[in-house]
TrEMBL record:
The keyword Phosphoprotein applies. GO terms for biological process: phosphorelay signal transduction system. The modification 4-aspartylphosphate is found at residue 71. InterPro entries: ActR_PrrA_rreg, Bact_response_regulator, CheY-like_superfamily, Sig_transdc_resp-reg_receiver. This is Chemotaxis protein CheY. The keyword Phosphoprotein applies. Keywords: Phosphoprotein. SMART domains: REC. The lineage of its organism: Bacteria, Pseudomonadati, Pseudomonadota, Alphaproteobacteria, Caulobacterales. Residues 22-136 form the Response regulatory domain.
Amino acid sequence: MDIVTDPHEALKSAIAALADKTLLLMDDDAPFRNRLARALETRGFTVVVAEGVQQALEMIEANPPAFAVMDMRLEDGNGLQAVEALHKKRADARAIMLTGYGNIATAVAAVKSGAIDYLSKPADADDVVKALLAVADHAPPPPENPMSADRVRWEHIQRIYELCGQNVSETARRLNMHRRTLQRILAKRAPK
């Protein structure tokens, strides 16, 4: 009996054993969506992508996938709508939510709508696969290389800055931060 020591190979083996490898990835952030789609395809999933809720709902209606990775907040709606539609169409589907707005209330809403897990963006492809393949009532192991607290803070600031149309004053106001402090943070490279 061969023992698989490479975690990537272990995940690929687990995916290869699946009868249905179809996966819907819905995210409006094109670079992130494309990177994650490629990573999931290399691990063995058959990935289709949707840029928004409406497109995802049409794909779910036409051919409901076995797995789904959904962004929580999109320009044309909320990812919870797509998760609910997927579970109405295919009760055995396993969906996880990704979001840059991590808090307890949205996590509870995601689980109530049928998601099996809830991950903060940007999520590592291996963490996504582990969450999708986790056995019911058994949490996946913690990530091997989680983001540092500094990186999480930096990602949050960047997200708010983008949502405010790259307006430094508005971003500083919303983050309750001094404008010059925010400018110094934005001028630095992302922490590891």
